[in-house]
Amino acid sequence: MVLLRIGTRGSALALAQAAEVKARMAAAHRALAAPEAIEIVVIKTSGDKAADRNLAEVGGKGLFTKEIEEALADRRIDLAVHSLKDLPSALPEGLTLAAHLPREDPRDAFFSLRAPSLAALAAGATIGTSSPRRRAQLRHARPDLALVPLRGNVDTRLKKLEAGAVDATLLAVAGVKRLGLAQRITAILAPEEILPAAAQGAIGIECRADDARARDWAQAIDDAPTAVCVTAERAVLTALGGSCRTPIAALAELEGGALRLRAMILRPDGSERLTAERRGRAADAAALGADAGGELRRRADPRFFAEQGA
């Protein structure tokens, strides 16, 4: 008998994440331990259908969550599993973020068959990435490099790299590790080199706010440190009102019980970069994020966001 339906995208990474949620839920609740108690429901999203197009031009990263959230609201599923970096900071009315899995490494990974590190890439080398955040930071740090669009899942991008389509590419360490491909990473980029996307490496579990049973089941596997860090980072996004066109980066880390938050906004061409940092109590995560995002918004030229569609 199916007691819980988990909605997810159908990519290899999304299915691996959903399987992890299923395993943790089954381990935490006796009622869900039977193999047939939890069903994984694959939902094709608009983002999957537009795999060869620029996300910013067709609706933003919310395209990876829209249909899944509709299934949740329509009660066709009970929980939705998301890569939190793909989940817009404002959730649809009636839905809530119920739990977070322990976060994987939030950093970006550098892949290349031509150089051992980003710094070692020759002038004029091509880097394939379609991420506005990565492109802006690369343009700021290495304006001598040639940036070309590169979309698709992890395996697709790595195959293009091996075929010589580009000299290098960047991917999230977390996704590479979850797919068992960590041995193919050339180098891991420190946040000082490339600051990650807000909530990168975190898996979120969304449910209906009025579904107490599903919410309680999910909260039993919630990882509190991840929840704190993600709350701060997503508060930065909310304060900035950033769109998929806006290069925004944020990373919160717990250091000895205190929270350290770094946030950044950039012009798409990398010509201007603004940063903010906050330190404080974990209990103040949302306020710290809102304050850092508010500072960046105040310091930026008014045209900074208008030019980027925010």
Explain the layout of strands and helices.
Blueprint: E1 4-8, H1 12-28, E2 38-42, H2 46-49, H3 55-58, H4 66-73, E3 79-83, E4 95-100, E5 108-112, E6 126-128, H5 132-141, E7 146-148, H6 154-162, E8 168-172, H7 173-178, E9 187-189, E10 203-208, H8 212-219, H9 224-240, E11 248-255, E12 258-266, E13 273-281, H10 285-299, H11 303-306
Parallel strand pairs: 1-2, 1-3, 6-7, 6-8
Antiparallel strand pairs: 3-10, 4-10, 5-8, 5-9, 11-12, 12-13
Helix pairs in contact: 9-10
Description of the structure:
This protein is of the alpha/beta class. The protein contains eleven helices and 13 strands. It has helices spanning 12-28, 46-49, 55-58, 66-73, 132-141, 154-162, 173-178, 212-219, 224-240, 285-299, 303-306, and strands spanning 4-8, 38-42, 79-83, 95-100, 108-112, 126-128, 146-148, 168-172, 187-189, 203-208, 248-255, 258-266, 273-281. The strands form three sheets. A five-stranded mixed sheet has the order 2-1-3-10-4, sandwiched between helices. It has a five-stranded mixed sheet with strand order 7-6-8-5-9, with helices on both faces. β1, α1 (12-28) and β2 (38-42) form a beta-alpha-beta unit. α9 (224-240) packs parallel to α10 (285-299). The radius of gyration is 19 Å and the shape is globular.
Q: How would you sum up this structure in a few lines?
A:
The protein is of the alpha/beta class. The protein contains 11 helices and 13 strands.
